[in-house]
Amino acid sequence: MSTSTFHRAAGFGAAVVLGAITLTACGANEAEDGGEGGGGATIALLLPETATTRYEEHDRPLFEAKVEELCSDCEILYQNADQDESKQAEQLTSVLDQGADVVVLDPVNFETAAGMVDEAQSQDVPVIAYDRFIENADYYMSFDNETVGRLQAEALVEAMGDEGSILMLNGAPSDPNAAQFKAGAHSVIDESGLTVLAEFDNPDWSPEQAQQWTTDQLNKYDPSEIDGVYAANDGQAGGVIAALTGADVPADALPPVTGQDAEIAAIQRILVGEQAMTIYKSIKLEAETAAEVAVALADGEEAPATTETGVEQTDFEGVPSYIFDPVVVTADNVNDTVIADGFYEASDICTGDYVEACEAAGIS
């Protein structure tokens, strides 16, 4: 489906996860100070993995905080699947057994997740597909993912001057977003003057596999033959850069490398010139929208046509959806994006070796 059919809304983790369910509940004495929605309902949040820092550092705490604001006596059942789809299926059954009234599900594998949705719906429990599309979900929310890939590729073409040879590192084939990023990137690269030397679909998005694959390519190609690298996210970008510097490519001679997720390490690499760009997606907007919709559904209400954050409900492949816009971040606009949005404080980024680079970029 063409991304032009989307209604675009303006806007823009790796902690150790306990295998057991973390329960966040608020007592009756706290309910007097909180919101009125939800009525003591139970909301489940199931996230897919911890290799990407966003989930534990941003998605989970932002979602939980918004639910608490809207429904202080709601209970949250949280689990992370650690990239194991069988484990996630068991987690879904577990939260249903514990009385979940609505499930917010970011699937490890979007295809097998359809069966999980069926299981929940058979018990009259609605499912919100979070960040990754599931075709039979009740609702879906994510970013305009083909645009993410297109913006990454456009930045790479601009940095390279529309000529040269590149490596491409895509995301996991089990992640539907990865296919959309890849399609968006190829829509630009295939029409450009760039040549793809080799391409890799990283099965678990891991930086370690990205580093190993890049090292393998450096055994086939001299570093001087690699003029740029399309990396679908910041974790892989970090692995690529580690492989290149490990092959004695000086930091000031690294080819442009793309990224996504606006991780602190990536922002720091961008400021010192090791990474060309990243994509900032307002996880706060996404997580808080998910919380608002989840509380409404748990309270037996319809999902809002327009959320508190001003995001309008639209349609994606027949599923009622909330779609958000991504933003390109370079050294020139760190101050105006992730810092201005409150995603990070300057002090989070401007540490140690990066203080001077922050000052040069006007960040203090």
TrEMBL record:
Task: Indicate the principal place this protein occupies in or around the cell.
Answer: other
- Coiled-coil positions are none
Subcellular location per UniProt equals:
Cell envelope
Extract one GO cellular component term from the record: outer membrane-bounded periplasmic space
A Pfam family assignment: Peripla_BP_4
- SUPFAM superfamilies with a match to the protein in the record: Periplasmic binding protein-like I (SSF53822)
Q: Which UniProt keywords apply?
A: Signal
The record's GO molecular-function terms, alphabetically, read: carbohydrate binding
Stretches assigned to the Periplasmic binding protein domain? 43-302
What domain of life? Bacteria
Protein's name in the database: Sugar ABC transporter substrate-binding protein
Species name: Nocardioides antri
